[in-house]
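Researcher: Please translate sequence to structure tokens.
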Amino acid sequence: MTTVTFFYLGLWHFFCLPVPMNQNTLRQTSLNILNMVDNMPTLPDRFVKIQAILDDPDSTLSDLTAMIQTDHATSATLLKAANSSFYNPLGAPVSNLAYAISRLGRQETGDIALSMSLLYGFAIPAGIGLIRRLWSNAYAVAQIGRFITQQLNLKGLDPETVFMACLLHDIGRVILSMRVDMSYFEKPFSALEGQALISAEVEAYGIDHAEVGQIILKAWGIPSDIHDIVAAHHQISPTLLATKTCKFADSFALEYLHTALSIEDVQIKLKEGLLEQAYESFCETALSGD
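Model: Translation complete:
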């Protein structure tokens, strides 16, 4: 049976059958669709190129600027961030992208650029407002997760691994909407959170977005220490500290940053003391076993 046949069989199962399938059949249908190599979504090319520059110890801010300046949306976001009160306390605005990037620094610039590449790199069948919120949340979770990890400063707990896992923690929702059910974000359950969302996805598709995330990240060749965090970030009591951090960061962002509707809004709000608040809360709750 060809992959195209699997695809249309899956659509027929989801949208045409009058009688619900059992969970095993639902799960296998979803897995068949997800594993169709001929039509496998890939990481956005811009994301890969920006990550390569950031990973190269010999690269410069000029290299990063040259990559970013070809994208107007990312350039505008960086300019807005560089002119925010945190980075511009004296009220001396910059309108030049190179100056803005120099003001923000390599890490902050790279974080925003990577997030923007995800925002515009996937053809998600949903409104732009919802897509912005989805990736703004991912950016927030990644920033919080990295900050907590840096403050803990524990051997074997890599801040950049946690950052990347947090940035991609909901990639499974994106893939579900692109491959399994194009009306995913129109479903009532898409507004749910935590275990309620996981249960609703399993009931609808036989699989949840955390497992889907692990499947797609494996297919992309992402290291196991990242996709294992993604797979477990909705576990009720995760054992790994990195996973606890991701789960906590997700919950904290949903509670305190739900009104931030863009990546630059999140970036500005985090600079107003929320990162420190998140770390203190993490130490009081997640580290105490609550």
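Researcher: Any highlights?
Model: Confidence is low (pLDDT under 50) at residues 1-9, 15-19.
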